[in-house]
Structures are given as C-alpha cells and as structure tokens.
Amino acid sequence: MLRPSTQRYSVTRPLYSEDTFEDEHAKVYRKHKRLLDHFIQYFTCTSERAKNTAVSLLPIIGWMKIYSIKDWLLNDIVSGVSTGLVAVLQGLAYSLLASISPWYGLYAAFFPVIMYFFLGTSRHISVGAFPVLSLMVGAVVTRLVPDEGLPANITAFEGLTKDEQRILVSASLTFLVGLFQLGMGLLQVGFIVMYLSDTLISGFTTAAAVHILVSQLKFVLGLTVPGFSGPLSIIYTLKSLFTQITSTNIHDLVTSIVVMVMVLVNPFLYPYNLFLFCNLTFRKVNHLYDMIKFESPIAPSLQVFQMTAVEAFPIAIVGFAVAFAVAKVYSVKHDYLIDGNQELIAFGASNIFGGAFKSLAASTALSRSAVQESTGGKTQIAGLLSALIVLVVILGIGFLLEPLPKSVLGAVVIVNLKGMLMQVVTVPYLWKKDRPDCIVWVGTCLAAIFLGLDLGLAVVLTDLQFALALFSVFLNLRQFYEPEGVKIFRIPSPIFFANIDFFRDKLKDVGFNPLRILRKRNKAVKKIKKMIKKGELTLTSNGLQATCSMPIEESEDESNMEDLDKPTDYSDLPIQVNWSADLPANIRVPPVNIHSLILDFSAVSFLDISALKGLKAALKEFIRVSVDVYIVGCDPYIIEKLRNCKFFDDEIKTSIFFLTIHDAMLFIHESHPPKTVSEETKLFSSIQIKTRTDFTFTGVIIAINLIPRCK
Length: 711
Hints:
about 700 residues; transmembrane helix; SLC26A/SulP_dom; secondary active sulfate transmembrane transporter activity; SLC26A/SulP_fam
C-alpha cells in the first residue's frame, strides 16, 4: 500500500464549463426505445416467448424438471407431515380471529395450497391462514355481522343463520382479495412491495400481534366480550375485559396456561403434544358423528364486495408483502429466483379458489414456513402433502377435534405471537443507529394499534408516499468508460429500502453474479480437496493433474448452501488455485473479468438500515471473489453512520474509501499496473477532469468523469 505522504497528483488543464466540455468531448448516446417499440415487443409472439410465458405462469414446470426423487422426496414427506400437523392447529386457532367456525380455517390450509402448488415461485413457504390477515378479516366480519344487533342490509343474508352470514362475508372478502391480487399481478405491479420497508412491516406486524393478543384474552379468561371495530377498538375491548375480570372462568384459564407452558417447554413437538393433550382431556364419546364432507362452493356476494372493497385492498397488500418477504429470505438461502408479479398471480388465484369454497384469506405464517423449511422441505411437494394431511383431518378424524374448547385454540394463537411480539426489542437498536427508521417503526405500530390495522396502514402509507416524494426512488446507475479490469458505477441518488434490491441487481452489469461465482468456487475447492484426499488428483510440476478423466457431477444438495456463501477456504491445499486457468477434472467455474470495482457515492446523501445491510452483503460478495471494491466521494455523515452501525469488519475496511475517482484509480494503478507502456498511456489519456466550484474549500474541488460520458 502506498504511503500517505507519496499519494499526490497534480492537474493542468483548461477551465471547462458544461457547454465547452460537451463541445470538446462528444457524448455517447444510447438508443432509447420508444413507447411504440415497447408496445410492439410486448405483443409480439414467438415460439420461444410462448415457451417462456408458459414456464413463467406455471413455475412447477421449472422445478419439476430438476426434482431429485432420491435426494428430495423423503425430505418433502417428512416436512409435509410436520407442516400439516402445524397447519391443522393454526387453521383451527386463527379462525377464531376471523370470528368464524374453526373448520373454515382448515380450508385455508387446503384449497389455496393446491392452487399455489402449480402457480407459486417459492419452494419453501407454507401457504395458509396468517393471524394478521385473519384479524383483518374478522374486523370486517364483525362490522357487517356484529355479535349484538342486526346485521348489514344485504340481500344474500336472507334465510341464513348468523354463522352462515359470517361465512358468506368471509368467503366473499377472500374472493375479492384474490381479485385484487390477481389484477395487480396481471398488471405487473409487484414492485409495490418495495414501498413496504422491513421497518414498516416489523412495526405493523407487532401492532397486529397486540390486537391478536387482546382479542384472544376473552377465550383464555372465558368471558363474553362484544366485538369492536374502528379507531380505539382495542381500548374498548380492554375496558370490557377489565370490567368483567372477576367473572373469569378458572377452568378455561388453567387449561390455557397448561397448553402455553407445554408449547413453550417443547416447541418442536407441540403439534403432537397438543393432539395428545386434547384427545385425552376433551374427547367426548357421545359427540362422535358421521364424517364431515366438503360443502358446495358458493358464489360471492356483490353487495359484500361493495361494502368491503376499502378493507380488501390493504388485506391484499399485507398478505402479499408478508409472503413475498418470507419467500425472498428462503430464495436467497437456497439460491433460486422468485417473481413478485407471479407471486401476486399465485396468491390471487389461490384466494379466489379458496374463497369459492368458504376458505379464509391465505398468505403464509412465519412459524409454519420455518417448520416446512427446517424439517428439510425442498419444494412445494411438501406443501401439497401438508394439504393432504389437512384433508385427512377434515374428512376422517375431524370429530376428534370438535370438542376442542376455544381456550385451547386461544392459547395456541397467543404462543404463536411470540416472534412478532419480540420485534419490539429492535426499537432501542433503531433509536441508537437510525432514528428516522425508529420513528417509522414506532409511528406505524402506534397508528395500527390505536386506529386499527386497516386505517392505521392507510395513514402510514399516505405519509410514506409523501416522504418518498422527497427522494429519488429509482436508482439510475451511470456507467463510465473504464480501463481494463476496472468497473466504475456512479449512484446519483440516496440508497434506501425502495431501491437497494435494484442497486444490487444493477451491480451484476459487471458481467457476472459474484454470489454464484463464490458458490461455484467453494464447490470447486471442496471437490479438489476431496479428490486429493482420495488420490484422484496429484501434484506435479505443472500443477494439479487428475489421475482419471471422468468428470465430477455436481450435487443438487442444498443442505450446505450457507457454507457456500462464506469466504473460500484454501487451507490444506498444496497449491494456489488460479481461477483464470483451466481447472483439473473438468471442473468449471465462470471467469471474473475485473479486479476492481469503483462506486461513486458523491450523490448518495442518505442510507437507511435496510440499504446498509444490502450494501454490506453486496460488497462482501465481490470481495470474496477477489474483486477489490472502492467507494469514492462518500459523505462524511454516511461514513460515520457506517461506523456506528458496525459496518466495518475483517473483510470491509475503512481503507476502501477514497476522495475522488482519480485517487482510487491511482491506487489501483499501483496495485494492478498495466502490462505494457501503451496500456498505461491509454489509461491516463482517457481520464478527463472537470472543475466544479459549487463547494467552498481552499483550493479547487475536482470531480472526475471518465469519458465518453453516457446519457
């Protein structure tokens, strides 16, 4: 590394204005497509495009072609059975939140799963009832069909009991939610999920957990509390609970406490424990009856559509946002792609299909998806098997669950809120590291608690829309001419939750995906070590030579995918691996055609927590494939924030920051000198310097633009 005292450069050039600079150095204009060109391309049909469209609309075609019966089927069976047992109890419990009969919560774990099996792009999420959605549906149900008083004036209610009226409202609302989601998917507006940051979703789901907890207290305590809706409904509910606290049913309270203790002590086996506990304690022999059959599908009520459209849209957004966030986590972990627009289509079709059969609105539950993934699930075959478990329960042994008291189901709901309620511990961290994010979290949570989930979310999104108007949402990376082996990107806007994914995708314009390269290299190193250990590779004067010419097949096993994302371990290798040369035994790793990446942060004035995490992950991906990353022109405020948030570690150091592009280029020139004199001359002759006088400093502030500039 150069000593600080030797890092000097001087500049002699004319003073340029923008006009004179453009006159002397012609810009390179890229051809931009007209609206008509996009329109023609969109409606042009070819055989290849028809094939891609079919695969896109039916993602099952893609993963079925690579399905390994030998390696994956057993894992999917174990995962499907485990997830199915959890789905049964959660479906029964979450139906209480929607104020409908428990059986219709089970339908949400069957009908939507069948449709998502064919249309969904995520292989690991478990589709079914989600407590937040169930609570939002319940608020609409109790508004139209209250516990006390007359129901809404709806023609379809004539001749129906109160329970049947509530089922009609729930099913119609689910159908309408599906229509909204399907419409947004067909219109390709999956990008809307970008406007829901991790902080906002965390605050909203925490508020929803508080609402759910309060709503279940009446079942745990065995009290009769009327349903309230609208702003401050949670206050009215608590007031009604405390005025009746002396009438608590001790049997229900003790039962709930026992169930919650059992689940908390042994969380991994709680489906089996609850089945055993409920069957031994609550089975009533005289309550056995004929097997339950599916009810006939129903047509949704148009009057319910008119009365619930305002609530249906936020339900559609929240259901999709939560499911997409969970799906994205597992897609990154297991190295496959998900499509936001196709997910909207999948959930839309699932809810339309489920709504026709009186199902609850479906999304995904975090705990249930964690069970499906952690027990070894590889594809949605696990989800299909879980649906079959639910079907067996509905048609075969449902009578065993009929005597379950609501206090048991309420206890199951409360225990499953643990993860969402514990999100409150992030508030002190956000206050210390990023106060704007902390304000968003607290504001979202309080608004959703006191104004209700639907109105609170609407208020938050309205304020967020106004705030986002102050920022540049779409990140436009500008790429300049670079010397060989160097890529330079200029980021002309703040980086935050709404554009961090776009930022990371644009960095792949360097010509390769660093994360895939890293995984390929780690697999290759593991294979080389294994072959050396078996004697299939020997060390010669020319390097490693294979003793046999048989190619080594790559394994599809994803069990160690997290290990493949770590820095490559070259220990125990007798020779240094040259990734630009041919590797032995037909091992192939895509080449990396650059050695340095420069990010111009001179226009980046803001960086939130979500973007910080994404930026750190992106930089590490490049560093781990031996690409040096340099950040230039960074605001001191951002550097200080990076320090406070523990951004720097053994891989990412403060030495990667330079004042200007020219500083970074001089350092790169010393680290990676040109191979010939002509290349060195070309390198420095291509650098043009533009003076900028919009800052007050001693001396001249210079910003480097490598020409020809792109527009």
